[in-house]
Amino acid sequence: MSAIVRDAVARDSLLATYRGGVRPERWTVYQDCYSVPVDRVVSLSEFIFEFYSSPVFRIERWLLRIVLGVKASDADLKALAAGVSQEFSVWRVADRTVTQLLLCDRFERTRSWLRVLPLGGGRTLLQFGSAVAARRDSDTGALRLGTMLGSLLWVHALYSRALLWAALIGIRRAERLYWGRPP
């Protein structure tokens, strides 16, 4: 199995280039990117579906339903993956290309980014990244993450790796179900 690595956020990624939303300068303080290669071609639609339908993410979907009353069905997910929906649970599509999807939460606090990067030879690099909005310090005027949020970034890093790992397992399982052919 391939290892998940933390990479720099690519300058051409939607996570780095998208400047929409409220106060775009807030998105420069914290961004991350995790990557893992797969030995076959994976479409963005397949990656989106496997990522957001994974057992790990289903827990988050359940929590969002309990805490915020926001439902996200598999039909909603299929519509997002197919590119026919602009919303999923608490997120809206900020931007999308053939290889990338950028979601912003409705509170303008976080962004989630997925990318499939063709590597050649029938291989694909799966990437997942996040950005967290910073706040302006009332004393210094500098943009920074809150103390509590900053101290919990290690949990976010573990969770990000778990999400990407679960998506990878789903992609490999789908390949086996279709006898080596992508769905």
What does this structure look like?
- The structure is a single chain.
- The protein has 6 helices and 9 strands.
- A 7-stranded antiparallel sheet has the order 1-2-7-6-5-4-3. A two-stranded antiparallel ribbon has the order 8-9.
- Strand 8 and strand 9 form a beta hairpin.
Q: Portion of residues in helices?
A: 25-40%
Class derived from helix and strand content: alpha+beta
Main β-sheet: number of strands, strand sense, barrel status?
A: 7 strands, antiparallel
**Total tally of structural domains:** 1
**What is the helix tally?**
6
Quick gist of this model?
The chain contains six helices and nine strands, in the order βαβαααβββββββαα. It is an alpha+beta fold.
